[in-house]
């Protein structure tokens, strides 16, 4: 996601890193490159222009110039400006009504139906609410059946009226049904078009009048970049949206929509779709997005994933060991199963600060099993690092795990690199770039790790 923009911004940071201090001249050069990078990433022209102007003013400010390194000064300025541009804080979903009604709108192909189900699953899991999905997309032949299948996957009721051609009548009867059956939240999946037209907007306005939604969420396809922002603006003018959901951020998304949409519409981004699975939806967090755009990982959502997958007591024990860099192969084996619950190793590692320096990496299920076999072939003392894994011991472990000696050496080397990374963490936090520490120091360590 945003690889091209991230790469260009990191090049700008490297340029600044070669300077002894920030001056008006080198800041102007860096800001010019930032502006070009944003425009190439399909960020709105006026948004890009005002953004770089803000960066230049802050970078030349007296308070910032008192910092230690020019590179860290500039990163912090860009990071803070990105956060401010995208809304500063998370904006939570309004589901206080009884029932609370949510209407999804957007063009055809943006992912409305899928994200209606994703949103329902999120609300059920995180808010413990009874959710009803309503099939108001009567234009696309397969929409109702798709919503029913998705509803079955998440054990959520779907309201539809077979043969009905009037979406407003469906909405009205669904709302009556929701009140009678005491549902907490009702999510209306509406029709889209390939482009905005009068009939579409009238239908949406009529549905909105009937259901009086707490939330009108515009679903935007992030791969369309600036086009998604323009469309969001038009929908907002016609039906007054309360926020947006940005979809397909796991693909070749351009940064234009993520960076520009709030500034242009004045309405917050509330959720982002990050994959094809039902659970691949998360609250939009401006700091998290700024971190990812600058190649600093995604610690915020990494922690959230860990909290949902890890046993709290075991997690606290592991955290203490990680902070002391005293975790062992035995700890690693114990936690491996929990890590698998968080998703693919590739997706997890990408969320770590500095991981972008590692290039393309992944650990398949087969490789995980190989690592498990290696650790299980170790003696208790070896797993707990009470004895050094000498060449002779490594050969014995490789034979017991039915792997090559190179596989054992790779595991040992990677494990030591991870311990070195966590030993650096406390010092990096003291440097204060963000609570995650210095991107440069992290990249130096992470970039040396070789998994393949």
The total domain count is 3
CATH superfamily of the largest domain: P-loop containing nucleotide triphosphate hydrolases
Structural class: alpha/beta
User: Radius of gyration in whole Å, from Cα?
Assistant: 25 Å
| Second-tier CATH architecture of the largest domain | 3-Layer(aba) Sandwich
Fraction in helix = 55-70%
Query: Can you give the mean pLDDT?
Result: 80
Q: Regions with pLDDT < 50 over 5+ consecutive residues? A: 428-452
Topology:
Layout lengths: L2 H15 L6 H17 L4 H15 L2 H4 L4 H16 L14 E6 L6 H16 L3 E6 L6 H11 L3 E3 L7 H14 L4 E6 L7 H14 L3 E7 L4 H14 L3 E5 L7 H11 L3 E5 L7 E3 L2 H8 L5 H11 L2 H12 L5 H13 L3 H6 L14 H12 L3 H4 L7 H11 L3 H27 L7 H8 L6
Parallel strand pairs: 1-4, 1-5, 2-3, 2-4, 5-6, 6-7
Antiparallel strand pairs: 7-8
Describe the structure in your own words.
Helix content is 57%, strand content 9%. It has an eight-stranded mixed beta sheet with strand order 3-2-4-1-5-6-7-8, sandwiched between helices. The protein has helices at residues 3-17, 24-40, 45-59, 62-65, 70-85, 112-127, 143-153, 167-180, 198-211, 226-239, 255-265, 286-293, 299-309, 312-323, 329-341, 345-350, 365-376, 380-383, 391-401, 405-431, 439-446, and strands spanning 100-105, 131-136, 157-159, 185-190, 215-221, 243-247, 269-273, 281-283. With 452 residues, it is an alpha/beta fold. Helix 11 (255-265) links the parallel strand 6 and strand 7 (269-273). It folds into three domains: 3-85, Up-down Bundle (Four Helix Bundle (Hemerythrin (Met), subunit A)), CATH 1.20.120.140; 100-294, Rossmann fold, CATH 3.40.50; 300-446, Orthogonal Bundle (434 Repressor (Amino-terminal Domain)). The protein has 21 helices and eight strands.
